[in-house]
UniProtKB/TrEMBL annotation:
Name of protein: Chitin synthase
GO BP terms: cell wall organization; chitin biosynthetic process
Family annotation (PANTHER family): CHITIN SYNTHASE (PTHR22914), CHITIN SYNTHASE 1 (PTHR22914:SF9)
Positions of transmembrane segments: none
Location in or out of the cell: Cell membrane
Record-linked InterPro entries: Chitin_synth (IPR004835)
MF annotations from Gene Ontology: chitin synthase activity
Keywords of this entry: Cell membrane, Cell wall biogenesis/degradation, Glycosyltransferase, Membrane, Transferase, Transmembrane
Documented EC number(s): 2.4.1.16
Reactions mediated catalytically: [(1->4)-N-acetyl-beta-D-glucosaminyl](n) + UDP-N-acetyl-alpha-D-glucosamine = [(1->4)-N-acetyl-beta-D-glucosaminyl](n+1) + UDP + H(+)
Pfam families for the chain: Chitin_synth_1 (PF01644)
Signal sequence segment: none
Amino acid sequence: QVNGKDVTSHIYEYTTQVGMRIEKGVVQLVPKQQPVQILFCLKEKNQKKINSHRWFFSAFGRVLDPNICVLLDAGTKPGGNSIYHLWKAFDLEPMCAGAC
């Protein structure tokens, strides 16, 4: 408890040191150029995926107003460039609403 109220989640923030640039229509990663902000929220109680998505879009989405959101299930280990390729799909097609 904090101030007499139950803790519902733990939030961690990390800013990467990897930037991105577009060269001849291709996005490339550039070390130590432009940071990317990453948030991790660990809920105290597992109330399933839909509840987690509701939390994300209702709380974090409204405050941060992100261009692209990536949601991963617990235990998922993305491949080396998979999140980049996901981001690239959205970048190349602005009308894209979802990708996997």
